[in-house]
Amino acid sequence: MKDIVKLQEMISNSNNIVFFGGAGVSTESGIPDFRSVEGLYNQEYDFPPETILSHSFYKKNTKEFYRFYRNKMICFSAKPNAAHKKLAELEKVGKLKAIITQNIDGLHQMAGSKEVLELHGSVHRNYCQRCSKCYDAHFIMNSEEIPICECQGVIKPDVVLYEEGLNNHTLESAVNYIRNAEVLIIGGTSLAVYPAAGLIDYYRKDKLILINKTATPMDKRADLLISGSIGEIFSKLEVE
């Protein structure tokens, strides 16, 4: 409880907050976490998920890639949880400047957040590799085997696969927000995936808040460390 009070105080006293989140923000909405005990990495497939979600696998085994992608990566039933909603409220009153997310589910936008930097892209954006025409996630789900554009080009999700680099513009914007933030809240991430996890190095102030269910390699760097469900913790906060 003492930690929640301190968190509330830090948020109440700042109008320059940046939030950096990972899979743990979305697990409470029903999105599977890759690295949890129940996550995708602990289920059995013909190939491990990190292989299927690689650029080379996508190129060589596009049909199998899409079979996995439709079954495991798109979740229309997921709805924003307390963390998504509270962050949207903080942005609306001018306290939160940006959300930087490793998630590809679009739940922050669904909750009402406007400034969302998606480091790993989004399942809701898909584009033809031949003519660049855009398609939504429903088109992908309703297509059979390999989704094909009207120009006969193959449609690819706008998500960053393994072996692919992050979007430079998105990365630069994230660095700028973190570098200029007064308060940096990191939530629901193991801080194990680079280069995203390296963004913490750009924060220079003394209000680094780390919220996660399990320990991370960055715990010692936190000015406030809270262990627990980010949805439950955020639901206790008041937006002033």
UniProtKB/TrEMBL annotation:
SUPFAM superfamilies, alphabetized: DHS-like NAD/FAD-binding domain (SSF52467)
Single GO cellular component term: cytoplasm
The keyword rRNA-binding appears for this protein: no
Superkingdom in the source lineage: Bacteria
Coiled coil: none
UniProt cross-references to Gene3D superfamilies, sorted A to Z: SIR2/SIRT2 'Small Domain, TPP-binding domain
Keywords (A to Z) from UniProt: Cytoplasm, Metal-binding, NAD, Transferase, Zinc
Sequence positions that bind nicotinamide: 34, 104-105
Pfam families attached to this UniProt entry: SIR2
Places the protein is found: Cytoplasm
EC numbers: 2.3.1.286
Reaction(s) catalysed (UniProt annotation): N(6)-acetyl-L-lysyl-[protein] + NAD(+) + H2O = 2''-O-acetyl-ADP-D-ribose + nicotinamide + L-lysyl-[protein]
Cofactor: record remark: Binds 1 zinc ion per subunit.
PROSITE patterns reported in the protein's UniProt record: SIRTUIN
Molecular function terms, GO-annotated: histone deacetylase activity, NAD-dependent; NAD+ binding; zinc ion binding
InterPro entries reported in the protein's UniProt record: DHS-like_NAD/FAD-binding_dom, NAD-dep_sirtuin_deacylases, Sirtuin, Sirtuin_cat_small_dom_sf, Sirtuin_class_U, Ssirtuin_cat_dom
Ranges for domain Deacetylase sirtuin-type: 1-240
Binding positions for NAD(+) per the UniProt entry: 23, 27, 34-35, 102, 104-105, 120, 189-190, 212, 230
Chain positions recorded as Zn(2+) binding sites: 128, 131, 149, 151
Cofactor dependence: Zn(2+)
Active site per the UniProt annotation: 120
Homology family: Belongs to the sirtuin family. Class U subfamily.
Chain's role: NAD-dependent protein deacetylase which modulates the activities of several enzymes which are inactive in their acetylated form.
The protein, known as: NAD-dependent protein deacetylase
Source organism: Lachnotalea glycerini
Name of the coding gene: cobB
